[in-house]
Fold this sequence. Notes:
Layout: H1 2-24, H2 38-42, H3 56-59, E1 76-89, H4 92-100, H5 107-113, E2 122-128, E3 131-135, E4 141-156, E5 163-181, E6 187-206, H6 213-223, E7 225-239, E8 247-253, E9 258-265, E10 270-278, E11 280-282, E12 292-294, E13 296-303, E14 306-308, E15 311-322, E16 324-326, E17 329-331, H7 338-341, E18 342-350, E19 359-366, E20 369-378, E21 381-391, E22 400-411
Amino acid sequence: MTARIHHIRSTVLVAGLMLQLFFGVQGRAEVPDGYLSPRPMGMGGAFTAVANDESAFWTNPAGIARVRKARSREGVHIVKFPNATVAANKGSQSILKVINGSSTDGVADAIAASDLNSSKPFYARGAAFPVILFDAGKNNPMGFGVFQNTTMRIFIDKDIPTDARVVAVSDVGANYGIAYSNFANRLNLGLTLRPTYRYAYEDTAPTSELKSKSALVKRIQKGSNRGVGIGADVGFLFTLADFWFPTIGVAIRNLPTGCKTDYLNPNTELRQNICGTKFSGSDGNPEALSVIDPMDTRIGLSISPRIAREFGMRFTGDIQNIALNSGKVFYGLPGIDAAKMLHGGIEFYSGNPLERSAFAVQVGANQGFVTWGVTVNAPFASLEIASYGADLSTTVKRIEDRRYVASVSFAL
Length: 412
């Protein structure tokens, strides 16, 4: 018992030092994100070596085999519907207040007179991912879901308040996943395929149009890129001995289906040959960043010490967005600073670590900023809430955009 307590104390100390390191490193430009779920973000985005719920489709496909422990896995594992997610940032209310409190002709003047600037953007997101996970055969867990994910960001430069920078990206598609596990479920391999239709607008719009929903929608429809891409992710999980020992996770998201040769990398400010999930179709704006989702290589480590029979904790850390290259061809996005590549988190949960917890609380660090989250799983429903910070800076001085995300679903 004494040895177990000493082990827990040592693990807590190491995790604390890791989080201090994450908070102390400074970064540069916002990292492209994908489909973000509350529970992983509550843990600082460090989910590669955990991936034990439906978020595995977006973080590490090998985790499709870990939504239920191997001995009780048969038939349908879980069904979640509509699995709806909404998100907004702290500055959204301020910018809406300024816009709604002014006339159409006076929006630019109201923004110029306010304290709004490009580091306090409007951010909002709406998504849904109804999904089912099941066994197709012995040790062959699978899953299928359909998804819709729409994100909008509006940036306004006070020096040019008549123009607003609008980034609106909407994805619709399906996600197919298959995994392999050995009998003990300590070794897992996974693959997901994700055919996606993308509708994206990345350009300026007159600030006055922010008062008119119909005018803004018309502009977005006229100037949008429309394309189709097939994303593919692979993943690996291996637990040493049992869950008291480390779990190692590796995931490669957006396996290269194409490359964009003149991609303007916002981190290096250079035009580079970037590979990943490429979207082909009409190009209203060929300079848009959304024409390709860069490959994202991730490595994670987690450990789940037991505190009591019905209570445990989980420590996890990730290195994400690792860029690989062959000559001048980059498989991933180079130039991302360390603060945005390092993620860490701690989760306190009830029940067995191999089963879905009825209640869990998460804390962590994402891009050098504090994160927190709460997960509640009732018999027929689930609720997840989280808050995290994204770094909007283009210099070594970090700029936090505090965001809040919530997900609700019926669950079986």
